[in-house]
Amino acid sequence: xxxxxxxxxxxxxxxxxxxxxxxxxxxxxxxxxxxxxxxxxxxxxxxxxxxxxxxxxxxxxxxxxxxxxxxxxxxxxxxxxxxxxxxxxxxxxxxxxxxxxxxxxxxxxxxxxxxxxxxxxxxxxxxxxxxxxxxxxxxxxxxxxxxxxxxxxxxxxxxxxxxxxxxxxxxxxxxxxxxxxxxxxxxxxxxxxxxxxxxxxxxxxxxxxxxxxxxxxxxxxxxxxxxxxxxxxxxxxxxxxxxxxxxxxxxxxxxxxxxxxxxxxxxxxxxxxxxxxxxxxxxxxxxxxxxxxxxxxxxxxxxxxxxxxxxxxxxxxxxxxxxxxxxxxxxxxxxxxxxxxxxxxxxxxxxxxxxxxxxxxxxxxxxxxxxxxxxxxxxxxxxxxxxxxxxxxxxxxxxxxxxxxxxxxxxxxxxxxxxxxxxxxxxxxxxxxxxxxxxxxxxxxxxxxxxx
Length: 452
Description:
single chain
């Protein structure tokens, strides 16, 4: 059931994002009078559709994607999707073609802003500490923060010149800059100091970890229980707070509580083992017999998270728009920074999520509710728009780069040359996709949203 839910959530997320992206190309092409032959939702065989005013609006067999075929724009993903293309003279001016190509990624950025605004208007539940001032309460022994000389009571003012008004801001900068030297300005007893900190990559996703904590360790709270799972048979329910596994207390900081629970389950396996939990403030006991997964790990099939106090982050529409714009302005340079570090080999490819991981987190957020799923769609939409601007053939950025070269040469390249470049880009994308899927499959310790 979880697999089906994850798959449906992935299809929903990608369907919306791809439709909006392709609609951007379509609308600007129509505005400039470019003939649009096909507007396809999905790839592969045409299932059904309708031809109207010269455009075939169709639904194709594979729903994870889509394309618009604009006559005179040059070969693109529609050429690969349909297998053939015909020689057609370029239509319109180069700047018009460039705007058509830009329209797709810009629509994804606009969608991210709209969705973030909607989330902040409706209200989203977030851990309360994320909105608090980033005052360090605990410095983990042996951590990067300890090595840099941070002390409990230090308030983080900025990181690399970027203001950190909330714990959320500081944690984001640490996570996005593993192995990078950060300039951290702090307030220590009224004195402003500048510290040098190099976050260490955590083993699963390569995200930066500083070992600077906002408070005391917390317990693990069950968020979902898979039907007919070992946890369900043991009587566990969502909102139960896990106290101990096989006599081992489960307590840790928010970013490590999941791994502590995973480790305790695997150490106690094959069981059955005792588990204590709180329900409605009352202590209960049960016994769990875990199941062995294909990767060799033992699982009880629940999703857990830190049992943190939460607050609802909600604003009036005008302020929600400003908060959404602030999120976009923060995430764009952060995403570009991560991409730059990946290209320089300074960041791990583990930090990239492929379709398997996206399906997992989409399914998990969908089970939490509509608002968390919309917030996830906003984040993915922005990243999709930025990724599409990379100068890789097949992507919009690759076509824009080719247009720039044609502008310098003051002539349009032949269809054959463009198709060869397109094929090379397609192979590059396939290679990248293979790597991220391999990373998805090789993460034997699941991410916190993966039921186990």
